[in-house]
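Page 42, continued from yesterday. The earlier attempt failed because a stray header line got pasted into the input along with the sequence. Redoing it now with the clean sequence only.
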Amino acid sequence: MTFYPVKNKILENLKNGKVSIGMELYTGSASLVEILGYTGFDFYMLDMEHAPVSIENMRHLIRAADAANLSTIVRVAENDYSLIARGVEEGAQGIIVPHVSSAEDARKAIDSMRYPPEGKKGSCSSIRAASYSTSGWDNYLEYHSNNVMFIPLIEDIDGVNNAEDIFKELKPGVDAVFFGRGDLAQQLVKKGEKINWDHPFVLEAYNKILELSDKYNIPTIAVPWPKVSIDTAREVLENGSKILLYSIDEIMFYDQCKEIIERLK
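This time it went through. Structure tokens are written below.
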């Protein structure tokens, strides 16, 4: 037996000067994963922070994605070794870690997902990502080092203030950064105020992330804002983001259902 590598479509697109389009998956539906691949999406983000997705379900979803030529990015629930390591071992092409607010947070996550000497992750050849084989272990390690992305989610005030230190921990050509404007805007709300999604600090933070992205050659992941549409998605890409998360499967289904009822009734 040997190691059978799976293509990381995001990194392949970046090398070829192309953008990558993805969808957030909350439902945990393997059928929807296949549909995303068959319709031409490049990747999907499997949410395990806000959605009830189990480790076992994650394994089957990644299998479905591999079969449909779709890359998998897993957002773990927290900066925890076991959660990050399991995502890597099941074959995800990238791991998003929420609430990375410092270089120390970034290093903790990197140590959890990368093998020595780059990190401190424990080794086991009997894992899905390594094709369950010891004979191809060296090939897997080389693949893992160059193809499995660490993606810190910068979504806190401290994270914005320490953004450059976080970028310095990342690996050009492999890693990326996800800017979470939703949580950031929520943290800026004072008692009695309504949330301002376009708060000046949020907009300044977004521009700061884009500038650091250019400086350190680390691409950014962004979402259409303030409304999900083709036009706002194009604006995000024109602003410099190379990786786009278009929407969430549940929200898209909700919006379509609502439109059907409004138009027919």
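Notes: The mean pLDDT is 94.
Reminder to self: strip header lines before submitting.
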